[in-house]
Amino acid sequence: KLFFTDYGNAAKVERCDMDGTNRTWIVDSKIEQPTALALDLVNKYVYWVDIYLDSVEVVDYQGRKRHTIIKGRQIRHLCGLAVFENYLYTVNSDNLNILQINRYNGTDVQSLARLDNAKEVRVYQKRTQTAVRSHACEGDPYGMPGGCSHICLLSSNYKARTCRCRTGFILGSDGRSCK
């Protein structure tokens, strides 16, 4: 799945399959400018920052169990968001501080460091890099991913795929080759 935010005409948090199909709104009310998003892959939660409402909120992958982690002036102008163990990590774009927020107790906020020009934060940890089973976009005997001549995108599950073409090309009638 691909999770993303949109604050165009109607602000929302959405998910879809990697090929863009099965697009689903998971948050579409009481939301204004969702800018940063992070996933708890183990517990299947989606966290986001709303810079207009000065809040960090969470829902499960289906848009249920919504609640506010923290809200108010203390977390104004946040950009970037990452989750690791009991904490959320984010950047305050005003003072460029890296903040650590306890995701179970939003009153526990600590400034960890100041980094010039910081706009994003990522946590890399071996446990978040799950082992990959065989999937529909593996290379075929000719080295083409999923048998696609340009781009292979996973679809509704790891056994399904959609072929796409780079800009300037169109997908052939075979659904695999680009012309």
UniProtKB/TrEMBL annotation:
Annotated LDL-receptor class B repeats reside at 1-43, 44-87
Any one biological process term the GO annotation gives: canonical Wnt signaling pathway
Coiled-coil annotation: which residues?
none
Q: Which GO terms describe its cellular component?
A: plasma membrane
Tell me one GO molecular function of this protein.
Wnt receptor activity
Which PROSITE patterns does the record associate with it? LDLRB
Q: Which domain of life is it from?
A: Eukaryota
Under InterPro entries, the record lists: 6-blade_b-propeller_TolB-like (IPR011042), Cueball_EGF_LRP_Nidogen (IPR050778), LDLR_classB_rpt (IPR000033)
Q: Name one Pfam family in it.
A: FXa_inhibition
Q: Which PANTHER family match?
A: EGF-LIKE DOMAIN-CONTAINING PROTEIN (PTHR46513:SF33), VITELLOGENIN RECEPTOR-LIKE PROTEIN-RELATED-RELATED (PTHR46513)
User: Know the name of this protein?
Assistant: LRP1B protein
- Organism equals Smutsornis africanus (Double-banded courser)
- What would be the name of the gene that encodes this protein? Lrp1b_1
